[in-house]
Design goal:
Layout lengths: L2 H28 L3 H16 L4 E3 L11 H9 L3 E6 L8 E4 L6 E3 L5 E3 L5 E2 L3 E4 L3 E2 L5 E2 L5 H8 L4 E5 L20 E4 L2 E3 L1
Parallel strand pairs: 1-2, 1-7, 7-10, 10-11
Antiparallel strand pairs: 2-3, 3-6, 4-5, 8-9, 11-12
Helix pairs in contact: 2-3
GO biological process, one term: folic acid-containing compound biosynthetic process
Keywords: ATP-binding, Ligase, Magnesium, Metal-binding, Nucleotide-binding
Cofactor: Mg(2+)
Length: about 190
Amino acid sequence: MTERTAAEAKAALRVELRNRRQAFVIDLAQKATLLVDTLQLAEHAAPLIGQARIVAAYLSTPFEPDPMPILLRALDRGAGLALPRVTGPDAPMTFHEWLPGDPLEEGPFRIDQPLATAERVTPDLILAPLVGFDARLNRLGQGAGYYDRAFAAAPDARRIGIAWSAQQADAIPADAHDVPLHAVVTERGVIQ
């Protein structure tokens, strides 16, 4: 598969999986089970926290699973928390210390992030958002490569994708720079 064809395949898959994720969340909301499913996802993730010293996660956007219940469990276990910070399209994504209630500012993609003055940290567990995943633990992100570069910069960190089961694809095209996950947690369980 040529680079252009692989990029086109990923773009088409992103559209399909975003639509599938949105329909899934709307269905959960209509059934009034969204909170239940979010808490079930957190239950499945709890054993993966282990003895992590610093757990990095993301602030969810509409239709993404909310990792906050997982972060609160990690905090209860004594782990430090971190959120990603992005300063521009070519700059690396970094992780900065954060606790619930700490001030945030809007980042370049209109996603809240820690202030520039928050201490930069290296997490040993990264809870990553995704658009799609497959059984081989390949992750399809938004397409900018921030998480792949962050994974490469922290090779010892465990990489856990957080997703709804509806986001699983038969196969995710993987490029040489794509870094696979160690596990994916959904409301149905853990895929390792």
